[in-house]
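Sync notes, pocket subgroup
Present: LS, DG
LS reminded everyone that the earlier model was apo-only. Rerun requested with oxa(dethia)-CoA included. Inputs:
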Amino acid sequence: MAVQTKIAGLGHYVPENIIKNQDLTQFMDTSDEWIQERTGIKERRYGAKHNETTTTMGAQAATMAIEKAGISKEDIDFIIFATLSPDYYFPGCGVLLQRELGITKTEIGALDIRNQCSGFIYGLSIADQFIKTGMYKNILLVGAEMHSMGLDFTTEGRGVTVIFGDGAGAAVLQPTEESGKGILTTHLHSDGTHAEELAFINPGSHGGYHLKDKDFGYPPENEPGGIFVTQKMVDDGQLFPNMNGQVVFKKAVVKFPEVIKEALEKTSLSSEDISLLVPHQANLRISAFVQRSLGLRDDQVFNNIQKYGNTTAASIPIALSEAFQEGRVKDGDLICLAAFGSGFTWGSALIRW
Ligand code: UT7
């Protein structure tokens, strides 16, 4: 009997601290009207600076997913952690999550993936391969972000900062032999030619030397080693993410429908068969474009960006977990997940619940 991968439990966590659009106007030249009109976002959550991190939020979501799956944390045999805002540059959040959850056994692997907005879908596809080959039985997949610690709260950063929020989502993946159930297909894509259009470039191993057009205040080239962070970087505000919003938007509205259609074609299904599309929550206008180009009704698309902003790798698992809680994901439903973002990387998954 062929083994497929099912989502056995979902969890999510968002911090208590609600930041409304109006709150951001204290720091930068923006408005509630602009943010709502261009993105659909009304508010987002920020983690508590003194006691929350990407890992602790991931652990909250993971605990819920483990409980919903009806297993114990000791049953987890592999962790996949997707984030662009890790606690440390290294080691990654996978091992930190293992420690935070109190999983002391060492017969477990922990993998960190850095695929930003499409991180959850990449993680799902990796988990699917490991389950189908019989290597693992209980994979914990987490997407979590603490963006608020790394955003530019001046007017210069407004094009990026107003969009992002903090939170975490998680899923426990298990094998199933129930015919036709579970992950039906996953599709992953990348195009590195636009890497810098949505990127957090400093600090990095380029050491500034490979970015000749930028002056980061580095020492002369003949000195051994480099300096990871320079005072000039700090002074010039170069330690923040940058995004060419329009380039990302234009690519996203093409790639989202394309990669969803690819999954539908692979499974000989059509958009009418989709019970619920849970897209990466990038921008409500992007979701509306995708909905229109696939001819989906409102009840076939789940959006919660209004409450949480764009939570990057956490956005799909938070949305999926909320949709499940709201009774919008039921036995036998066809669930479609899709994402596009930094890299550029993008992907889709079709799941028969
Ligand atoms: O998670 C996946 C990765 N990210 C995305 O998918 C994001 C995709 N892109 C977008 O969502 C949109 O491009 C944004 C929401 C980022 C920006 O919306 P836009 O309609 O593309 O605006 P724009 O960048 O073309 O900027 C229009 C104007 C500019 O002013 P001028 O030059 O016309 O005077 C900006 O300076 O809006 C200004 N602006 C703002 N004004 C008020 C940019 N950010 C803000 C702001 N508040 N926060």
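DG: Residues 30, 34-35, 38-39, 117, 158-159, 162-163, 198, 245-246, 248-249, 252, 282-283, 286, 310, 341 surround oxa(dethia)-CoA (CB under 6 Å).
LS: The longest strand covers residues 4-13.
Action: DG to write up.
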